[in-house]
Amino acid sequence: AMRAVLVAIADWKMDKKQFAKTTELPGWGGLSEESKELVRASYLYYEEGEFPSEELVTLTPPPLLQDTQQSRGVK
């Protein structure tokens, strides 16, 4: 059941119909509320162009990416 949910959300570009089908999968209830909100935010970003809140998606690049940018002279 969870595998079906993971496969469904692997491609974050889902429309309203796909999002609704995903939330009805038996494994959907096994996701944390934070995970469900992230999937919903990803759906809204693709469908409506609404970027997820910074609470869900930080605007600060991860350390590995920061190191790469600094080595290239990007600030």
UniProtKB/TrEMBL annotation:
Residues 1-67 form the Antibacterial effector protein Tle3 C-terminal domain. Residues 65-75 have a biased composition (Low complexity). Residues 56-75 are annotated as: Disordered. InterPro entries: Tle3_C. It comes from the Bacteria. This is Antibacterial effector protein Tle3 C-terminal domain-containing protein.
